[in-house]
């Protein structure tokens, strides 16, 4: 009990501005907190076994387990409080979690004291107090664990995916629909915030900045909350990305304490930073299309890689695609797809959309199935005639999946951006005689793959931004295929220059972030 009292005195004496030492030790809380969980659960299970099966368990064994559960629970309280000094937690839930954690430690000490051979004899009615004390500590442990998960992952973390019957029994409201990515079929008509910016925020930022968990007082889940900003002010300055915190923290070195997303989380790609930068520079509007905004040469290939596939040009505001001659494959009628096969593909998370009902052609998209992999790709040849557009960008497919894709003989568009496809995979696509559009942005292809691309006679557009191809390789490809639109992409040097100008301003900023 003295340890708990000393811990409470230490907590109250903590400074308003925590030092690095305090925060350093605070980050050990997630590690320490698992110790009392294990010790107390073992003690509870041993007591249940003793009471129900009358098995003899050494009192010394249980006393030892309870002692270390009490010690580790006390340490978890101290380290947890130090962690909370960093801020960014919902105040009411944090207070409840702290007091519940202290309760676990207190009742664990009581259970140990009354179970102890020496102390137990001196405490009146010790045996009557033992089981209630142990039971209360276990109950508080479960409640504190639940609130801890809420603080870390959001208030709906535990029951987020609870089926409807369980939600009804628990008295919870119906589950809110999860965020659905809206496919981009025409990038020129895409809503900039809804279809481009919001998906980036949802996949990289909203986990820590939502209604249930708003680190630094920042929420990025709705336009209203984004406009509101965080506890130190606006998160962006419309028209000035270099002055916007949203961009500054992303450009910091990953090991910087203020870098966002934090080290270990899924990081923003260069293209996503470029898109957010462009959106802010264009006024950070929430109701405009791409065609309503100015598109420069740097951002053009990034936008074009999101959807579409026709050769594009920069013209005035937005992207002017211009009329393109209709592809022969788009006028071809094929047999209707087997509904069972379509359902089988949908169960993997793929979107299977009719591209042309008259011709029975399909678009297959993994926009909501980022974990789609080589094994699941084996299902694709079952629709070898019907699949005309295939979008597997940012999935787990590798060169192994290319053998299945090569069997889609009517494939006209293929998205493989930000996958682990290499030259070996591209060699397998040489039989796709109808392929006109190929997106290889962010893959591991080299100049060797360009030789294979030159053999795809109907290929009109290929995106090679952030690949391992060289300028000489691209020049050679253009020489052999003068009509081929080869998009090398945004200048990485320009992005680096931007980072140099933005980062120094951030280094001197002492305001709190996340």
Overall structural class, as computed from helix and strand content, comes to alpha/beta
Strand order of the largest sheet: 3-4-5-6-7-8-9
Low-pLDDT parts are 7-15, 309-317, 320-324, 489-514
Q: Mean pLDDT, as a whole number?
A: 81
CATH architecture of the largest domain: Alpha-Beta Horseshoe
Radius of gyration: 29 Å
CATH homologous superfamily title of the largest domain = Ribonuclease Inhibitor
Shape estimate: elongated
Please state roughly what percent of the residues sit in beta strands, choosing from under 5%, 5-15%, 15-25%, 25-35%, 35-45% or over 45%. Answer: 5-15%
- Terminal Cα separation, in Å? 36 Å
In total, the number of strands is 9
CATH topology of the largest domain: Leucine-rich repeat, LRR (right-handed beta-alpha superhelix)
Task: Count the domains.
Answer: 3
Task: Please report the first level of CATH classification, the CATH class of the largest domain.
Answer: Alpha Beta
């Amino acid at each position: 009990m003295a340890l708990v009292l000393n811990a409470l005195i230490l907590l109250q004496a903590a400074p308003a501005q925590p030092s690095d030492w305090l925060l350093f030790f605070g980050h050990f809380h997630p590690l320490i907190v698992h110790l009392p969980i294990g010790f107390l659960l073992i003690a509870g299970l041993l007591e249940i076994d003793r009471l129900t099966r009358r098995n003899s368990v050494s009192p010394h064994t249980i006393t030892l387990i309870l002692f270390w559960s009490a010690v580790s629970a006390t340490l978890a309280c101290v380290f947890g409080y130090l962690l909370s000094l960093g801020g960014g937690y919902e105040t009411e839930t944090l207070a409840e979690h702290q007091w519940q954690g202290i309760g676990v430690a207190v009742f664990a000490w009581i259970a140990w004291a009354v179970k102890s051979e020496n102390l137990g004899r001196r405490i009146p009615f010790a045996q009557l107090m033992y089981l209630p004390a142990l039971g209360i500590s276990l109950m508080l442990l479960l409640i504190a664990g639940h609130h801890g998960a809420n603080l870390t992952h959001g208030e709906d973390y535990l029951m987020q995916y609870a089926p409807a019957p369980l939600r009804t029994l628990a008295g919870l409201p119906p589950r809110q629909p999860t965020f659905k990515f809206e496919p981009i079929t025409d990038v020129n008509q895409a809503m900039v915030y809804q279809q481009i910016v919001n998906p980036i925020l949802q996949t990289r930022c909203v986990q820590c900045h939502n209604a249930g968990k708003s680190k630094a007082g920042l929420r990025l889940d709705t336009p209203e909350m984004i406009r509101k900003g965080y506890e130190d002010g606006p998160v962006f300055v419309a028209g000035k990305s270099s002055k916007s915190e949203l961009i500054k923290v992303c450009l910091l070195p990953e090991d910087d304490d203020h870098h966002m997303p934090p080290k270990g989380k899924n990081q923003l790609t260069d293209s996503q930073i470029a898109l957010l930068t462009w959106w802010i520079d264009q006024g950070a509007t929430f109701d405009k299309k791409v065609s309503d905004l100015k598109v420069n040469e740097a951002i053009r290939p990034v936008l074009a890689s999101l959807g579409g596939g026709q050769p594009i040009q920069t013209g005035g505001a937005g992207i002017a695609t211009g009329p393109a001659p209709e592809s022969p494959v788009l006028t071809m009628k094929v047999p209707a797809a087997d509904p069972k096969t379509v359902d089988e593909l949908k169960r993997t998370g793929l979107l299977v959309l009719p591209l042309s009902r008259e011709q029975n052609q399909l678009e297959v998209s993994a926009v909501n199935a980022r974990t789609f992999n080589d094994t699941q790709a084996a299902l694709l040849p079952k629709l070898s005639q019907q699949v005309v557009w295939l979008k597997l960008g940012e999935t787990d497919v590798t060169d192994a999946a290319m053998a299945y894709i090569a069997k889609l003989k009517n494939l006209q568009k293929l998205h493989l951006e930000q996958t682990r496809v290499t030259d070996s995979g591209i060699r397998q696509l040489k039989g796709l005689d109808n392929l006109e559009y190929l997106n290889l942005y962010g893959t591991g292809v080299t100049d060797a793959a360009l030789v294979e691309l030159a053999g795809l006679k109907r290929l009109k557009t290929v995106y090679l931004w952030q690949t391992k191809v060289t300028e000489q390789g691209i020049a050679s490809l253009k020489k052999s295929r003068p009509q081929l639109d080869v998009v090398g992409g945004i200048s990485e040097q320009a992005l680096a220059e931007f980072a140099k100008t933005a980062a120094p301003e951030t280094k001197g900023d002492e305001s709190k972030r996340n």
